[in-house]
Task: inverse folding
């Protein structure tokens, strides 16, 4: 027997679902579909454990870990993160800590900081335990989406041996490589947000003490913002997310450039006085994008393969895993031949876009004077009931409660209204920021 391209079907392996990419999105979707009884093959071009950026997770990741059966293992490899700490040199409050226990839904008061090499390997092994045929060191090079019955996926091993897979559904979870969006020419640069990042791992960086020792620290500065994420074994992940124009001024090594950038902030300098770089500094450009297609006949794009905005709220892994959970539920119904497919697909797309939009609202305004002021104007003891509620709604978003929880909606709307009023009041500053953003 031959497939639509005339290739001998004897060499072809048949599955219900083929997943491209073995990061958090791919392994989550694969695990849950295998749990539902479908035959699933996952193809990963790298080999775990491998470095990946994206180390700070959100509280709303925890229910997903429970569902995948990995919560205890994540706890073992992670550092407990109770809050996100923000620092600014231009607001009345120089530092404020946003504890997740203050979210409107306080059921998940903590998250974890993880080394992605360990975390992704754990998720990969777990999907194999759940029955997924997960293969590493194999790169998907072509997907034939034309046949309405069976999709053909071609992949190459490291030694250039070709394998052919046939399936009813393809999930693209290839991350920032955006495999299907490139093929479909559906990838679009985000016109509202273009940043670039430069980052590395260090030892001997001053850590916070007591209950705050696992918190992420975020520092605002003129060229963007800086993160410090404490990892196990005394390592600190440090990165700067900057306007691309600033990074273009670089004429020295990445290491010196990051060091000079960090030295612009006295509070950061205090913490890195004895810092020692481990490994290499890396940089990522071409930052924010989305695909104009999320789902088509027999295929779906999930996680970073569909869209990426900015890591400031540590939302990437959560959005990727939650969209994979929802995608697995949708694909399960589609494969069963539901008569409601149109409605389900629309609801899925609405939910994914809603989550990204909730985070994006803050990301697009992250460096505006009005947002700095609103987030960092007074400490909790001086806030009235409504100010506290608004802060809780912001913390809910920071926790990953981004899909329209009605209890979050009203105080969040008040927060946004105040933001617009404050921006109008300080319109000169707001316009200066918007011009700066447009022409970095
Ligand atoms: C600078 C920076 C900092 C970040 N910080 C955070 C953070 O603190 N917290 C957070 O939650 N998120 C963060 N993120 C975002 C986070 O890294 C991603 O959102 C997350 O990894 C997305 O998961 P994913 O499974 O969709 O993709 P990935 O994790 O990228 O996984 C995709 C996998 O697909 C594989 N692959 C690609 N192409 C192919 C192919 N053709 N065939 C087979 N396999 C393929 C890749 O090897 C990879 O293993 C950050 C991002 C950046 C750029």
Result:
């Amino acid at each position: 027997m031959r497939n639509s391209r005339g290739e001998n079907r004897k060499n072809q392996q048949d599955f219900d679902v083929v997943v491209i990419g073995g990061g958090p999105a791919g392994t989550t979707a694969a695990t849950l579909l295998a749990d539902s009884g479908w035959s699933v093959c996952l193809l990963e071009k790298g080999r775990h454990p491998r470095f990946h950026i994206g180390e700070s997770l959100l509280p709303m990741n925890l229910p997903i870990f429970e569902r995948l059966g990995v919560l205890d293992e994540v706890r073992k490899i992670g550092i407990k993160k109770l809050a996100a700490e923000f620092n600014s040199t231009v607001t009345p409050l120089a530092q404020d800590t946003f504890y997740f226990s203050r979210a409107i839904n306080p059921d998940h008061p903590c998250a974890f900081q993880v080394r992605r090499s360990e975390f992704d390997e754990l998720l990969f092994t777990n999907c194999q335990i759940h029955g997924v045929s997960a293969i590493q060191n194999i790169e998907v090079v072509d997907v034939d989406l034309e046949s309405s019955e069976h999709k053909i996926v071609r992949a190459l091993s490291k030694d250039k041996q070709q394998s052919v897979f046939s399936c009813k559904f393809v999930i693209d979870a290839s991350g920032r490589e955006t495999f299907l969006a490139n093929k479909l020419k559906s990838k679009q640069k985000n016109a509202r947000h273009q940043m670039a990042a430069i980052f590395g791992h260090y030892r001997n960086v001053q850590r916070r003490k007591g209950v705050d020792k696992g918190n992420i620290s975020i520092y605002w500065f003129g060229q963007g913002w800086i993160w410090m994420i404490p990892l196990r074994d005394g390592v600190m992940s440090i990165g700067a997310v900057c306007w691309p124009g600033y990074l273009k001024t670089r004429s020295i090594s990445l290491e010196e450039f990051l060091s000079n950038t960090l030295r612009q902030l006295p509070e950061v300098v205090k913490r890195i006085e004895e810092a020692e770089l481990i490994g290499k500094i890396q940089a990522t450009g071409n930052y924010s994008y989305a695909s104009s297609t999320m789902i088509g006949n027999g295929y779906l794009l999930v996680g970073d393969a569909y869209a990426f905005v900015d890591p400031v709220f540590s939302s990437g892994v959560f959005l990727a895993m939650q969209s994979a959970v929802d995608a697995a539920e949708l694909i399960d119904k589609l494969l069963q031949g539901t008569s409601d497919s149109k409605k389900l697909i629309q609801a899925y797309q609405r939910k994914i876009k809603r989550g990204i939009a909730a985070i994006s609202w803050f990301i697009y305004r992250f460096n505006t004077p009005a947002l700095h002021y609103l987030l960092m104007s007074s400490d909790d003891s001086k806030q009235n009931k409504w100010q506290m509620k608004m802060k809780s709604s912001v913390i809910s978003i920071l926790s990953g409660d981004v899909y329209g929880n009605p209890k979050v909606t009203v105080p969040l709307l008040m927060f946004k209204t105040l933001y617009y009023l404050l921006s109008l009041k300080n319109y000169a500053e707001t316009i200066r920021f918007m011009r700066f953003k447009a022409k970095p």
Observations:
- Residues 341-364 form the longest helix (24 residues).
- Residues 20-26, 43-46, 52-57, 139-140, 173-177, 179, 197, 199, 239, 284, 303-305, 308, 311, 314-318, 320 surround flavin-adenine dinucleotide (CB under 6 Å).
- The chain has 14 helices and 22 strands.
- The chain has three domains: 9-69+115-189+289-360, 194-284, 362-438.
